[in-house]
Amino acid sequence: MVFAPKIPVILEDPKDFEFTLSELRQYDGIKNPSIYVAIRGVVFDVTKKKDVYGPGGSYAVFAGKDGSKGLGKSSLDPENAVPETEDLDESELRVLDDWFSYFSQRYNIMGKIVPEIEPEAKI
Ligand code: HEM
After folding, report:
1. Of the four, 42, 80, 116, 120, which is 20 to 30 A from 99 by CA?
2. Distance of CA 83 to the CA centre of its chain
3. What is the residue range of 55's domain?
4. Rounded to an integer, what distance in angstroms lies between the CA atom of residue 115 and that of residue 106?
5. Is the shortest distance between the CB of 70 and ligand 1 below 6 Å?
6. CATH no. for residue 54?
7. Is the CB–ligand 1 distance for residue 96 below 6 Å?
8. CB of 2 within 8 A of CB of 101?
């Protein structure tokens, strides 16, 4: 399979915790020793790659963030480490899909991103 790790990674069953983007920011390897990275709202646990995503790591810009835009645009600019993908073109969306596939085959899913403010419950 394309993007499959050379040595298959045994993954746990996906968890279904909910994180707002500001809650996710805690998981940057500093405030919280765990490091989570979200792609298209799906939160992956990348703690085992602390050298890469932790403080000073090459891809630390994505730690504690949904960096879908930057992943699609192959950009490490912190301004692009945001979830919005509206201005990605077709080929950038394909790149983003490839990253989703890459992460899905390597990292455990912790849950998903939910809106910052809970909508008022309808009576
Ligand atoms: C000079 C440019 C770059 C070089 C030489 C480079 C090199 C690499 C290498 C060697 C890997 C490891 C691949 C593997 O483990 O199979 C990697 C992974 C990765 N690269 Fe780059 N890269 C570059 C630019 C970028 C840019 C601009 C981005 C922005 C999106 C990026 C995002 C990533 C990500 C997210 C990973 C996966 C890390 C992981 O979870 O293992 N890279 N890169």
Report:
1. 116
2. 9
3. 36-113
4. 26
5. yes
6. 3.10.120.10
7. no
8. yes
Residue 61: pLDDT over 80: yes
The model's pLDDT over 78-93, given as tens digits with 9 standing for 90+, comes to 999 999 999 999 999 9
What percentage of the chain exceeds 70 in pLDDT?
Answer: 94
Q: Assess whether the C-beta atom of 110 lies below 6 angstroms from ligand 1.
A: no
Q: What's the per-residue H, E or C state across the chain? A: CCCCCCCCCCCCCCCCEEECHHHHCCCECCCCCCEEEEECCEEEECHHHHHHHCCCCCCHHHCCEECHHHHHHCCCCHHHCCCCCCCCCHHHHHHHHHHHHHHHCCCEEEEEECCCCCCCCCC
Specify if 10 maps to a domain: no
State how many domains the chain has. Answer: 1
If one counts every other C-beta atom within 10 angstroms of the C-beta of residue 99, the result is: 21
